[in-house]
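To close the chapter, one final illustration. This time we ask the reader to focus less on the individual chains and more on the assembly as a whole: which components sit near each other, and how the overall shape emerges from the parts.
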Amino acid sequence: MPREGILVRTPYERITDEQVQQIHHASMEILKDPGLISFNKEAAEIFHSNGADVTTVSSGNNPCWLVRIPEELVLSAVDSANKTVKLGARNLENILIMKGDEPRVFFITGSETNTWLDVDFQTYVRKSEPATEIRVPEFHPRRGTVADLCKSAHVCEHLQTVDGYIRTVNIQDKDITEDNKDVNKFFASLNNTTKHVMSGLTSLKQLDNVVRMAELIVGGKEQLKENPIISFITCLVKSPLQFVEDTTDTFIEVCRRGLPVVVSSSPQAGTSAPIKEAGIMAQINAEVLAGITLSQLVNKGTPVLYGSVPVRARMDTLGDSYGSVETSQYNIDCVQMARFYKIPNYSTSGVCDAKVPGQQSSIERLFSDLVVTLSGPQFLHCAYGLLDCNAIFCLLQAVLDDAHFQMIKFFLKPALIGEKEIAETLKQIREVVATPQKMYIRHIRSVMRSGEISSPYPFEGDLANDNVFALAYERMNELLAKPVEHIDSVTTSKIFQEIPGLLPRLNVYEERR
Amino acid sequence: MSEDIIAALKENVIQGRKTIADEGIDEALSGKPGVVELTQSALDNNIPLETIIAQGLTAGMQVVGEKFATKEYFIPDMLASAEAVGAAMEILKPLLEASNIETKGKFVIATVKGDIHDIGKNIVAILLKGAGYEVDDLGVDVPTEKIVEVVRESKPQFLGLSALLTTTMLVMKEVVEALKKSGIRDKVKVLIGGAAVSDEYAREIGADAYCTDGFHAINVLDAFQKSGVQ
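The assembled structure is written out below.
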């Protein structure tokens, strides 16, 4: 049985059907005029050979082509793209089935941050009352390592609400190079979680090694097609409207291998996209559709996700403001556009502007997690543990995020109101009203044990003390102490024999000797 | 036979099953006698009162308390068990009086005049009954004169006053003053509770204790017992 996710029965819609149509038509206009600049020759050739109007813009050291994509080519690609995408997993119970027209949400981690935030607790004494001590969390940033990535995958394996895993931290160990980064990040992730693993690629040269690693884990090429335990995310389009040379190469090669891939676009309203909602929406939709069109021209039927990471610019720095309310609005609009095309959506929430766990991070992420979930994206990249936009990962924050996703999942359970419940309740009301004390407490008990009552916040303090961080820290360490199901020793041995560049310290069986 | 009845009685207290109609927690007990039926059955089989109370009711409540402390049980479970024990005590009451076995004490409880809130008051009453106190619940919106009259007539060791509102909490002071005027203030310990009141307010109006909830009330009463208040 695949994972259930959470079905949003009546998804929140921010834009009307008419507005969806308006954005669609504007995007079609954009794809024709001005079209996209392609810095990738092969992409330009593929579009040209399929009827797009392609002209050379520059043929010097930095050649590029203007690609004008006709509407029929886009609509044909939308038509041939899979409406259901399966993301496999080492544990078959963790497989994710995403249907473009079904608002069933799966919560997934990511993205890659450079900084890992350590937490420790210092004890302070009150000056006026030396007998009173308080413990205060302190956060220490440092460069992320492959050991951190293992820890992050390990904890996310045990977090109930996490449905899939995107690497959370960029591995920057001294022995990690451009040539071995991909195999190590995929292995560290796959070896510590039995959930689906998605990642970007640092080097196209490593694609076949990564795919071979996945084949070894599942038992072969065909088995990987049947159970794609890995998938890729590529930002092939740089906003505004440019196919990037290297990531488009990667994208084309992933499509050729028929593995699931996210066409991701991340325009920033105000700088790389218009500041107005209509503008950023028309542009991001055009950019994603251009990528989807390319995927289908390369390999018809490539399982592709409509990936949207729109963001508004901060007015003070013109940096990203993932915590802004508009960012959630754009994401919800994108969910609706993807549903219009019936292509499963990769959406974004929970990325906050706050730099450390605290009140700001809680408010920003809970707000966007809740509203974007309510719109019913299929693949919600909801940034467990991410802080400072995309720069910092904190495992403690990921544990805190799991608690509020439990609340969101509970909130979205269907209402239990029906003839049977009404009849039972009427009987109960009549019974209780006839008693001297008129209390329903006795009837709580069976409901309490049936799972119909939501759990209290797991990190609730006592009386006047707020112990959220300390309790979440305890929980984090409990999860780290709980074993995970690693790849078996025989397969691990094969992987280490066949795949070059893997760090010996990642072989848990060798390390145990 | 007697041992089976007492074991079943204890188990049904733990399960919070007052009567045969209650569902409890263990579905296997559905349709089987609850605490009320088992208490009657124990009497019919001539099991001594002390055994019924100590090995059945009290032993069961002790387990409930342990489960509550470890968060296996929550307040609704505790209340269900206490309510079941309270119902058993009602059955045993005439026999206890006849055999001169004393309860833990008599407790009169009321929501004061002008206030109709009674959830907290009812919970306290159920818990105290379950803890072995003889509880006389006067209800809500009870006039001060009525409270004084009951204290004078039935001579309880303890009086519990409840008020939710900042306006009606003032009536508690009136009750304490009225008890003084009637010359019976020193005959009864006055405990107050409710969202609006506090430890400080209890001291201000001359009450003997402020209780945060029913469990706290049991602890306060037990402390009074230990210090010799009867």
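The CA atoms of residues 396 and 473 of chain A lie 6 Å apart. Residues 17-80 of chain A form one domain. With these observations in hand, you are ready for the problems at the end of the chapter.
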